[in-house]
Specification:
By secondary structure, this protein is mostly helical. It has helices at about 1-15, 20-45, 55-85, 105-130, 135-165. Helix 3 (about 55-85) runs antiparallel to helix 4 and helix 4 (about 105-130) runs antiparallel to helix 5.
Length: about 170
């Protein structure tokens, strides 16, 4: 019976490798975002002489939005892989290895995730306000409501995380 239990536990432990294709899929998602980023840059430069200041600002905010999402994907891929699949032993001495890599726990990852969502939501809201003439009040109200919900959720989650870490 103990042998069966050990085999089952090894199977469960090995199943963590099922996440590896998910992280590779996030790499592919970054490639898609890179194409979208290039398209946005191309459009920005193509209309640089005819675009209004507001249109240029919206274009730049779109680039920042994509960059934030890509940064978020890197954090999720690196910390998720190291926390749940395997340590990146060969890269520990690499000169370009980020200082945070290997030190972000699951709780830290969730806080970074909600912080990034709030930042992305804020950028989308700013883009909407730059384009306020083309949006209905109802649409803007929903965007503000969703942003405030993300913001409150982030603050409450950070507070809960801080309170729970004081207990340990």
């Amino acid at each position: 019976m103990k042998r069966l239990e050990n085999n089952f536990e090894h199977l469960l432990f090995s199943s963590r490798w099922l996440m590896a294709p998910v992280y590779f899929g996030l790499v592919l998602a970054m490639l898609v975002l890179l194409v979208k980023f290039a398209k946005e840059v191309w459009g920005l430069f193509a209309h640089i002489m005819t675009a209004t200041g507001g249109e240029l600002i919206i274009g730049v905010l779109s680039l920042v939005d994509i960059a934030l999402i890509m940064n978020l994907l890197i954090i999720i891929m690196f910390s998720g892989y190291e926390n749940f699949v395997s340590k990146m032993e060969d890269l520990h001495s690499h000169q370009d290895r980020p200082d945070w890599m290997g030190h972000i726990g699951f709780s830290d990852l969730k806080i970074k995730l909600i912080g990034s969502i709030v930042a992305i939501s804020g950028i989308e809201l700013l883009k909407a306000f730059m384009n306020v003439d083309n949006l209905s009040d109802r649409h803007l109200a929903w965007m503000v409501g969703i942003h405030v919900t993300f913001l409150c959720s982030g603050v409450l989650y950070a507070l809960m995380d801080r309170l729970s870490s004081k207990g340990h």
